[in-house]
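Dear Dr. H.,

I hope your travels went smoothly. While you were away I took the liberty of generating a structure for the chain from your last submission, since the lab meeting agenda had it listed for discussion. I wanted you to have the full record in hand beforehand rather than looking at slides cold. The sequence, exactly as received, is reproduced here:
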Amino acid sequence: METKEKKRGKRGQGSVYLPSNSRNWWIKFSVAGWVIQQSANTEKKREAEDFLKTEILKYSNGDAVPDGKVSVDSLYDVLLG
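The corresponding predicted structure, in token form, is as follows:
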């Protein structure tokens, strides 16, 4: 008897999930040890997956930083401004 298991994504790609008490899909991924979890604000799984990819890209490029972290660019702006 074979059991079919869900295919898992590769590590570091995050995940999308639908909480039982929500109509909207949520995303979850980690950056530098910080777990980021937020609503994708969509009822479509494909749109949530696209949102996940853009959020991971933002954090990996340094355009966004996890709560409690400060970017060098923001420190530089404060220093000059």
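Two observations you may find useful: The chain has two helices and three strands. Strands lie at 15-17, 26-31, 34-39.

With kind regards,
E. W.
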